[in-house]
Amino acid sequence: MQTVLSKSLSEVINERHSVRKYDSTYKISQDEIKEILKEATKAPSSSNLQPWRFIVIQDQDVKKELRAIANNQEQVETASAVIAVLGDKEMYKNVEKIYRGAHEAGFMDEANMQRLIESTNRTYPYAPEEIRKNIASFDAGLISMQLMLIAKDRGYDTVPMGGFNKEQFIQKFDVPDRLFPIVLISLGKAAEPAFNTTRLPLEDVLIDYI
Please, are residues 136 and 85 in contact by the beta-carbon 8 Å criterion? Predict the structure, then answer.
């Protein structure tokens, strides 16, 4: 198992870059990938409904097929794993399990639990699907970034990929109707350094102080 490195958050953020060339011989264990995912699920989410789901692809033949779906991006096949992040359009169906779990853990009393369950059931089921998909996509972005930083802290490299045929992905992996694919994240050991990039000056993106 990979030794968890001790770095500051600032160091991890500054060292993380999108890597597209991977050591295809390096394998990450399923147990460690599960640890990374479990830690990543500490990310915030709207109403704590946690509308993220994952498919982890490590089988080499399946990765080869996925590469064709993902516009022939090399890293899909050569990384140790590809983590597909999906959104759940019907995230509200887990509301009772989520809030009852919080109640049983002692984080809220029963009255507050019931209030939150009822509030969720009055709103989310009746929201347009587009809005629910936007919520799930936003939360998927939060957990994806957290996942990539956790991976970097463990000495691994990643790159997020939005460029893939989502309909073909749904068919290939028999994705249920309530779920939809959002991003693929390669995970492995870099074979070559990532390209350096620049960012716009802060004054170009900071609109104002008020």
Answer: no
Q: What six digits make up the tokens of 96?
A: 């009772």
Answer yes or no: are the C-beta atoms of 89 and 180 closer than 8 Å: yes
Domain that holds residue 128: 9-192
Number of domains within the chain: 1
**CATH code for the domain in which residue 13 is found:** 3.40.109.10
Please give the angle made by the CA atoms of 47, 48 and 54, to the nearest 5 degrees.
Answer: 130
Q: How many other CB atoms are there within 10 angstroms of residue 149's CB atom?
A: 18
Predicted TM-score (pTM) of this structure: 0.93
For residue range 67-125, list pLDDT tens digits in order: 999 999 999 999 999 999 999 999 999 999 999 999 999 999 999 999 999 999 999 99
Residue 204 within any structural domain of the chain: no
Concatenated DSSP letters of 101-150: HHHHTTSS-HHHHHHHHHHHHHHGGGS-HHHHHHHHHHHHHHHHHHHHHH
